[in-house]
Amino acid sequence: MSSPYNMMEMMICIASRFLEDGKTVAVGTGAPCAAAMLAQKLHSPNLIILFEAGGVAPLLPQMPISVGDSRTFFRAVMAAGMNEMMTTCCRGQVDYAFLGGAQIDKYGNINSTVVGDYYKPKVRFPGSGGANDFASFCWRTMIMTVHSKARFVEKCDFITSPGYLTGAGAREAAGLPQGGPYKIITDLAVMGFDEETRAMKVESLHPGVELDKVRAETGFELLVAKDLGRTDPPTDEELRILREEVDPLRLVIGRA
What we know:
Layout: H1 7-17, E1 24-27, H2 31-42, E2 48-51, E3 55-56, E4 78-79, H3 82-90, E5 96-99, E6 103-104, E7 110-111, E8 114-116, E9 121-124, H4 131-137, E10 140-145, H5 170-173, E11 180-186, E12 189-193, E13 200-205, H6 211-216, E14 223-230, H7 236-246
Parallel strand pairs: 1-2, 1-5, 5-10, 10-11, 13-14
Antiparallel strand pairs: 3-4, 6-7, 8-9, 11-12, 12-13
C-alpha cells in the first residue's frame, strides 16, 4: 500500500508514466514540469525537456518559476529562443506537449481565450501564447486539470488550440499534421480518444472514483473503454522522488 498522497501528486505521477525514454516533451512550469522531471529521475533518463522560451534539454537543478527562468537553461544543450522552439514543433521534432485551458470539448479542442461572446466576454484569458503551435504540430498533447462541468463543455466558446476539431479526419482536412490530443489527466480519471470517432473516452478511474461521478462532472457524453480499469496510485518511490528531489519546497504539489 502506497503512502498517503493528494490529487496533485496523483496527476503528476500519472502524467510522468506516459513520458517515454528518448522522447522530447515541451512543458511549461508547474505540474507538467514536475511530471517531466519525475520521469527523468525515475524511468526516462534520456527524456529531452524543452521550454517555450528556448531552454533545450536542461539538467534542471530545481523547479523553475517561469519558462524563461535561468534554471530552464542550466547545463542545457542549447539556449535558443521562442522562434527556434516553434520551428522545432513545426518540423515534427516534439513528441509530447502539455496544454491547459478554461474549456475542453469532447474532441480535445481547448479554449484559453474567452468565456462568453468574444467581443463581450464574461471572462477574458491571456490567449494562446505557444499553445496553438504545440497543439497544431506536436505529435501528442496532454492536459492535466481539475475535472468539472464548467471546464469539460459540449462546445468551446472559442477554439484557441485545436484538438480533433469536429472529429475523425477534421485535423487533416484543415491542413494539420497527424497527431493531436493524447491523454487528459484529471483528479477523477484518465481519458484518451477513440480511434474511430476521435471523441473523448474514459480509460481508467482513480481509486475511490466511480464512473457516475466522472459523467456528472462532464458537460457532454463520454465514451467508455471496454476494458475500463483503475488507475494505479502513486508508488512510494514516485512520491519520494517527487517530494524530495523534484519539488522539495512543495511549490506545486502542496501537502499530502
